[in-house]
User: What shape does this take?
Amino acid sequence: MAAQAPDGPQQDTVRSLLAELWRDRLQPSRPGSGRETPVGRLIHGALFLTATLSAFVTIGIVLVLIFETVEFFREVPFLDFFGSTRWSALFAEKQFGVWALVWGTGMIALIGLAVAIPLGLMAAIFLSEYSPPRLRAIVKPILEILAGVPTVVFGYFALVSVSPVIRDIFGQDVGIYNALSAGIVVGLMIVPIIASLSEDAMRAVPRSLREGAYALGSTRMEVSLRVVLPAAFSGVVASIILAASRAVGETMAVTIAGGGNPQFGVNPLEAVQTMTAMIVQLSLGDTPTTSIEFKVLFAVAMTLFVLTLAMNIVAQWVSRRFREEYE
Amino acid sequence: MARNFFTLMRSSAPTATAVSGANQSGPTTTPPPPPNIKEDADAGVHLDPTLEAVRHEITEELDMALQLRQVSAFYGSFQAIDNMSMPIPRNRVTALIGPSGCGKSTLLRCFNRMNDLIPGARVEGEIEFEGRNLLDPAMDAVEVRRRIGMVFQKPNPFPKSIYENVAFGARINGYSGDMDRLVEESLRRAALWDEVKDELDKSGLALSGGQQQRLCIARAIAVQPEIILMDEPASALDPVATLKIEDLMRELAEEYTIVVVTHNMQQAGRVSDYTAFLLAGEERVGRLVEFGPTQDIFTNPLDQRTEDYITGRYG
Amino acid sequence: MTRVSVVAPSAQLTAFSPKVRIRRGVSVAFMVAALLAIAISMIMLGALIVEIAVDGAARLFTDGAPVGREARGGGILTDLPTPAGIGWMTWALPVAVLLPFIGPRLINALVPGLPQIAERAIGFIVVAPAAIFVHILYVRFESAYYVEYAKAVGIDGASGNIFQVLGEASGFQIVRLLLVGILVPLAIFAAGWFWAHRMRRPSLIIPAIIIAGWVVYLFMDPWFLSSFPSRKPADAGIFSAVTGTLYMMVITVAVAFPLGVGAAIYLEEYAKPNWFSRMIQVNISNLAGVPSIIYGLLGLQVFVRVLEFERSVLAGACTMALLVMPIIIVSAQEALRTVPPSMREAAYAVGATRWQVIRFHVLPYAFGGMLTGNILAMSRAIGETAPLIAIGALTFIAFLADSPTDDFTVLPIQIFNWVARPQAGFHEIAASAIIVLMAILLLMNAAAIIMRQRTRTDW
Assistant: This one.
């Protein structure tokens, strides 16, 4: 920097040396740009590109899905896809009623939520309202281990442990692949989501509210259920929707344990097929990229994508819209 | 016709019969002269003999709502207050004053066992309430809190409607009477009814700060406590709202025993009948310096430290 | 204003039901129910672990080569006589491993109240040589066996030189050398270091993991880790799956970490609060919620077909990188937000440029948190199966990938493949593979936890 001012007078005081050093820096810069060196600008640009990458990923997903989905609907009428409940993509006489798959997905997600909402909410209430801090410091990470177990492991557990128990209870004519066992492990998988996010929401409720309720002579349960839970309602609902979205997008456990039978029945003891399991089934076979089976893959994926995206957006909206502001 | 139904309910409480005639003077806005002051300081003092800080004018004839005996409080290994003994006179406003960190709030939270909720907190000693020690673990903290209500420093209405805020305590305590009337009466007592009667369904959080605090007072009196604890109830409010709260405290003192923590000495002087001055020593342990009728504490303190504080030398 | 009429006092008083006992009882019952909910979750987790341990242990811990298994590669290894002069090593190794942990604690117990500087000195003096010693000992151990092996199969001039061992060794030996010869000494060193810095918990966790790992290793069947998949459950192993997983993870980290951290830095340090950065932020949280299999389809179309990576390690790693990027971005953003504004201001106040502030003040502060997030993202990627199935990773790979463009398989896919087969024998080895997968995950999470504690202690 000092070299850029070669004809500066020879000064021996520190002050004038510094003045020389800084003189060229005191140029007026573009308003708002701060003082960025060329290297700084280069880095700024590179970082900007990495940030925009995520937008391109979304665009890529949407384009990829739309492209093949449009191809699919060129060959199969719209109503055959959305207006039917029969699915037989791999048979000679092909039927593409996506409702069979959506129903299978929904059934497993509902079973999962029926397991996870009571367990997760109660766990959250215990951790947030009852547990001494030391116990919480132990229990919460253990609970979060459940969230870290790979889904393929849950699939194994459903098939090898849960299914036999269900057969013991409901009789041996129940198939080893059934929606119930898949739903139960999916529920187990999403317990930590509900527990952890709900607990966060409950702990964000200001302590003054709890104290206000205690000062009126409330028991812990009354404080938990009548003050804290309603105050944390938006966070709790958002956690449940996020958990549901995770259950809908869950793939391996339902592929392994749910069976591969796309159907529109209400019996949870029968095998079903979810959208995700169908995608896996079609991917495992060597499907030619020009075939209708390959294209329907993307049509189903599009349905799945829209469904989970909608759930995530609703969850975000709920947590923003119904949040109580305490300040 | 009785003044209102709170008065009736309270007068049926067994301990309320001990109120002496001087206590039943009509509603006044100025502090009534401290009753039952005996000239002879040694006659019938029923306070703890170790307690020198309490003015000896207060005698057994004064009806006590609470009686503290050697109360100490700890947070973990830190001692917050040490060996405090004093009376809380019934149907009077008692102010706890003192500089920051002297244990005023801690002491207040001992009165209704709020310290139970803080992990690691521990209270020793004895607080007599209707002939029983309310610090006794066998005493039900939930019931204690129902009978000794609390209003907090920052208004903390529940994120519910105004109506539900007031009705909450009665609901959980199994109140089976006319809820609408209870809500209305409580809001009237808290001098809030006229402002909110048309919008009882509005969220409690939508009110102004002063209104929120009066809502919290209404919420506290809706469970019909005998004592109301107020932890700097006006510190977060503007002067006009503060004035309203102070007027309210004077009015409520007709029927309730009020203990108020305040930073503001003018406020203590305006609203309280009795004053306790607390001070923390070098090791930050709060101790009671002096307790007595507010007038005396302010005009004729016995302790030099009290005088220093009153005259603003502690800041 | 009309006054409300007043009910008789007694009626008012009884309006409050004095049922505090009952209410307290209900409250306690509710607590028990809540505890039960946690207990059920934990019991299910426990059942899962026990089930897998029981099913998988049989294959993983068979003693030596089972009778009737065909020998391949270094198959005669187990028939070798114990090389002369290494018997003591089997005992010396565990002792050397334990020494750094017991030693300082012993000193601590015997001479309480040592100053911290002395503790640190002892920690380093004891630990650093012990780590090196363990490494040397282990390499000699392996070399001695190799000489015997070379004799038995007729390789000339086997001296037991470590490079020769590496050149000739079977896959199993390489894995063992990597795991035991390098990772264990490193872990010992880390543990001693934590201990010296008075971080007692990590210094306890690490030896516990090492000792457990050691015990497990002593009993483990070397065949399972070092064999390729097979049509017969008894012959099948996870060599290609483990190496494939490691290979893919390295590339995934290399791709995802810089991109994710870069995006986080941009969003936290550069972006102005306008519609664009809000859009990116919302987009990232939405991407985190997209089902993983959809990333697989994206990878299939973009990496496999358009960019023509084929079904290679590279395609899989790129897909995984996109999948975990939202996690990395969000955790890196959180780490950056923990940097106190005063620190930035102080740096700006002495005339630093924005990049200098970030490079020399913000990044060093937040780096621990970023690494933690990265490890958590990696542990997510290691367990993911669906996207790799969608891009068509194969399940039967009987060779090791040489370059990023080779076909590959990973552990979860191998597990899925075995679980999906009807034979019980494959279910068993699936459980064995799950144990290996979970062990890797456990190690990664332990590392993340320790790292989190470390960053907390420093500031």
